[in-house]
Amino acid sequence: MIEFSTTRHNPLIDPFLHTWSWQIPLYLFLGGLVAGMMIISGYFLFSGRYKETNCSCYYLPRMSFLLISLGMLFLFFDLEHKQFVWRLYTTFQITSPMSWGAWILLLVYPVLLANMLLRISEKFGEKYPFLKNISEKMNSHHILIRNIGVINMLVGGVLGMYTGILLSSLGARPLWNTSILWLLFLVSGLSGAAAFVHLIAKNVHERELLAKSDNGFLIIELFVIAMMFIGMLTNSRAHKEAAMLLLSGPFAASFWVLVIGLGIVIPLILQLLAVSHKIHHTPVAPILVIIGGIILRFVIVYAGEFSHWSRLITFK
Q1: For the chain, which has fewer Cβ within 10 Å, the N-terminal or C-terminal residue?
Q2: Does a structural domain hold residue 90?
Q3: What predicted TM-score, i.e. pTM, was given to this entire model?
């Protein structure tokens, strides 16, 4: 882990010079995004929207498959002993968050594959007729499709929670050591996924539904952030100092302007106006939500690395 000395440092630059660079925040963002996409896709399957030919539940699994693979590649790049990564799958340690994460990530793939089999392209079906037969049999059992939807929502929820639990389990960093971080990352992942699907959805009703849903997620995210700060400010002095890193310290500008302002408040206002039909739907709002979600992970990771139990940090 990174240890900062008491000499002069710029906390916004130093993390880039150490082992925690860009891989972990992007891995956490992609994990949360895929989790949200799995929940949305699963909900559409469960609610019967799969009967619509242009339902996003048919192409989201393919995108999720690529994005989670990219996220795992980022995680692999960050590992110090890459040649031993296979050992994670030779055992299961119930008290190890990394062990849980390794198996959760492995479970995501068959669930996504089951969803992908519901819609096989004609060219792919001609090349692999047995997959086409499997797809046809699956589509003839509506209860099976609903169950696949439920499993997608469950696994997606676990994956979204895990991205926050991974950090909160590291008690040496007061900013991460909060029991509500998993909820923040889960809601942020859902918000980013809703914004992403809103941006690419081919179905007009889905875009409207996801814009409304994202408004709810953004409001909940603000509430969770407020609860996180209340919990930290009423906790130990180390937690208070860690909270001040975001509230008024060196990470405050990035947090308040880029995460809260551009990533939550402005897109929330735009989407509230759009769903009330006072303005047209614009891609600006979902793009800002996605960018805000990425910056949230960077700020939380870097500020958490800068927070310590051993040395209280004060800013004048």
Answers
A1: C
A2: yes
A3: 0.87
